[in-house]
Structure formats: C-alpha cells, structure tokens
C-alpha cells in the first residue's frame, strides 16, 4: 500500500512544486517583496542610504537589519533583475523541499516512503508556500534554517532516533549543536521573530547552540555597521516604525485591534489570556524536555512561534509555514495533531481559499485577514489543553 501511495504522491508533488514555482511565482502578483529588497541592495552597493524610505505609505518597505543586508548583498551584484528574482524563487522552493526532507527524517520516516512527497504536495498547496513564492520573499529559506536547527538540536541529544534516521551519522553531538546555533542565528539575523526559540537550548543548558544563536546576528551586524550606507538609520528610522501596529495585512491580535479600532478594555484581556495560554503551555511541556526531546522541541517551537505571530505587532498568515515542524509530530506516538481541533486550526491558517463574497463583502474581507488569527489562537488553546491532559495522565499513571 505504501508503495502505491508513494508512486501516486511523487507525480503530484513534482507537478505542484513546479507549477507553484515556475508558473504562479514567476508570474508574480501585485504584492512584491523582492523588488524592495533588490532596490535596497542596489542602493547599498552604490553608496546610497539603505533605509531612505517613505514610512508613511503602505508600499512594501525594506525591513532587514544591516547584518541581514550584508548576507543578502551578493544578490545586488547581478545586474539582471528578472534572473535574480527567478533564482531567488527557485532557491526558496528548493529550501522548502529540503526542509520537508529534514523533518521527515527527524520524525523517523524514510525518504523512500510516501511521507516526503505527500508533505511536498500538501505544503505547496498551502497559502503559506504559495504566497511566499508568489511574493518572492525569503520565508522558504527561513523554514530550512528552522528545520536544520531543530534537526541538529534534537539529534545532538538523541542521536539515534531509529535505524533509518541514524544511518550515515558522522557528526558529534557538539558539532550538531554548533550547526544548530549557526542555523538559528542566521534565522534570527534575518527575522528576529526566531529569537524566542533560544528558549529550547536554554532549557537544556546547551551553551553551544545559544552561543551560535547570539553570536551570528551580533557579529554580522558589527561587521555590517560600517559597511552598509546609512546603517544608523535602522535604529533611528526603521525600529520606531517597526514598533507601530499597521492596520492592513496584519493577522496579529494587535492588527485586529487596529483594524476594528477596538478599545484596550476588550483587547488587553484577550491579549493577556492568549499570552497566559502560551506561557502555561510552555511550562507544562517542559515536563518532556528530557524524556521526549523530539516531541518537546517540535511542539514547543510551534507554540513559541504561533505565540509570536499572534501577540506581536505584526503577524502575517504566510508565517504559518514555520509551524510545519509542529505538524510533523503527527507521526509520533503522542502529538497535539492527534486531535481534530488541531487540524481545524491548521486548515484555518494554511488553507489558500479566497473569502471574497459578493453577498457578504465585509465578512469576506475580514476572513481574508483574520482566518489565520482564528487558527493561531485555536492552536494555542488546543496545545495548552493537550499538554495539560498529557500531564494529568502522567500524574495518574507515573509508570
């Protein structure tokens, strides 16, 4: 049966991946994240200030810090916009595929089986992957860095997950932790939203990973500061802008408040309840940080990230791609995704459906932005409830 499923899944995976990459993404859309980045890199290479932007309009702005700018700078050396954009889209597409392979191996599944192609087919059918590629942004590479971090971190503490996953392992636990630190450090320098994931190595007193996660963004920014024109504007112009809550294309609770002009009397209790759910869920999950590091790492990383999406000043639905590692826990003996409410949450924040309606235009517009918010909040609640349920069962049956 698995052979039949694998044979059926690979053509679907290949066709969907190719279509989303070379048709949907190459065609592009009105939302274009790449042009902003390319223009900023071109300005840097010609000595013009990188952060010289108009912060009063809704057009995409260049948001990367000087360290991330230094990493991306080679793209600006190629004087062919279309070629660089196509290459960047392909690179992100391949990064997503490799990330899914790492996650498949991490949960003990063979790459020769149906899991990897099915994951590719499902992944390239989600709003997250479609919009990441169509908008030509860097989130696919960030998924790979996240997956590499989790893979190396978990394997460093439990090198032998199963016979298939352990074949060919040649790196020591210390080396794996250094790689994990570099991977999460690179993710942090590009998107600081990943910084809370340093909580994982902190709870295992893994100073190698923590050192890499902190040193990489610090060193890159120290090197970049005198090299990137107008680097100081990042602190004086961009950081204040980032502290503001925008009321468009923002699926966070703060975006919800700004869009509907909700009073603090209603908003703050909701925010505090969601924050408490994340915090309590993280504390309960600590019970498995030693006995089941795979379950703990994948579930806790997902809960931390979905908390960041929901509680920060900006959360965009396509960030949900970074919850793929948590979804992969479905292959473990215990998982939040062994219940239908968790899958309902995933459908809400991953489904690519358009909710535009001629009968209910306002409802359709609201759902287009906040269906992801509903899914994120539901996943937080389900994760907390499931973790508490596991804890109660373990207390009743300690053996």
From TrEMBL:
Membrane topology type: Multi-pass membrane protein
Transmembrane portions of the chain: 83-103, 140-158, 178-200, 207-228, 266-286, 293-312, 344-363, 369-391
Keywords of this entry: Cell membrane, Membrane, Signal, Transferase, Transmembrane, Transmembrane helix
Domain of life where this protein originates: Bacteria
GO CC entries: plasma membrane
Subcellular location: Cell membrane
Gene Ontology molecular functions: hexosyltransferase activity
Signal peptide feature range: 1-25
InterPro entries noted in UniProt: GT87
Family statement drawn from the similarity comment of this UniProt entry: Belongs to the glycosyltransferase 87 family.
Name of the protein in its database record: Arabinofuranosyl transferase
UniProt lineage: Bacteria, Bacillati, Actinomycetota, Actinomycetes, Mycobacteriales
């Amino acid at each position: 049966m698995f052979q039949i499923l694998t044979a059926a899944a690979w053509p679907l995976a290949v066709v969907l991946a190719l279509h989303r990459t070379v048709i949907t993404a190459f065609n592009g859309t009105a939302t274009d994240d790449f042009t902003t980045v390319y223009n900023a890199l071109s300005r840097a290479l010609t000595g013009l200030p990188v952060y010289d932007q108009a912060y009063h309009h809704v057009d995409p702005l260049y948001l990367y810090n000087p360290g991330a700018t230094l990493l991306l700078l080679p793209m600006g050396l190629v004087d062919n916009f279309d070629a660089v954009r196509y290459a960047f889209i392909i690179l992100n597409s391949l990064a997503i595929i490799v990330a899914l392979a790492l996650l498949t191996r991490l949960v003990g599944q063979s790459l020769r089986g149906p899991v990897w192609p099915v994951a590719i087919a499902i992944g390239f059918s989600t709003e997250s992957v479609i919009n990441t590629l169509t908008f030509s942004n860097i989130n696919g590479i960030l998924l790979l860095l996240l997956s590499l971090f989790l893979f190396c971190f978990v394997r460093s503490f439990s090198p032998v997950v199963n016979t298939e996953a352990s074949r060919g392992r040649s790196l020591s636990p210390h080396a794996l932790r250094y790689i994990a630190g570099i991977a999460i450090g690179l993710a942090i320098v590009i998107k600081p939203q990943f910084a809370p994931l340093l909580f994982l190595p902190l709870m295992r007193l893994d100073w190698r990973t923590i050192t890499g996660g902190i040193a990489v963004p610090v060193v890159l920014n120290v090197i970049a500061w005198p090299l990137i024109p107008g680097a100081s504007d990042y602190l004086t112009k961009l950081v204040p802008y980032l502290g503001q809550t925008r009321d468009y294309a923002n699926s966070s609770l703060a975006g919800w408040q700004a869009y509907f002009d909700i009073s603090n009397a209603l908003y703050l209790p909701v925010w505090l309840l969601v924050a408490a759910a994340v915090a309590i869920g993280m504390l309960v999950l600590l019970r498995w940080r030693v006995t089941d590091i795979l379950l703990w790492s994948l579930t806790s990383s997902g809960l931390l990230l979905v908390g960041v999406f929901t509680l920060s000043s900006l959360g965009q639905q396509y960030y949900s791609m970074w919850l793929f590692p948590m979804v992969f826990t479905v292959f473990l003996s215990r998982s939040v995704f062994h219940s239908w409410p968790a899958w309902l949450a995933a459908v809400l924040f991953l489904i690519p459906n358009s909710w535009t309606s001629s009968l209910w235009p306002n409802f359709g517009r609201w759902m287009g932005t906040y269906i992801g918010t509903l899914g994120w909040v539901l996943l937080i609640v389900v994760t907390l409830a499931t973790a508490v349920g596991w804890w109660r069962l373990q207390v009743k049956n300690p053996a």
